[in-house]
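Entry:
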Amino acid sequence: MLWPDPAQRDRLIEIRDNLRARIAEAEREGWLGEVEGLRVSLAGAEDKIAQVDRRRGNHAAVDLSTPIFQRREVPDE
């Protein structure tokens, strides 16, 4: 799966804001087909921003420790 680059978050915000402005303009002008297409693009941009935000919060360290192996004696048969 491809993940959006966290460094591009500001650019994604800019794209999202621009899409919102274009949707408002299209609604004012009555361009209903354009509105629907822009809403699809807006949902995609918002999803990418959410992916970046989720990944930012998932960088906690996890201690996996080193496994300890114990020697078991095998009985003589």
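The two ends are 54 Å apart (CA to CA).
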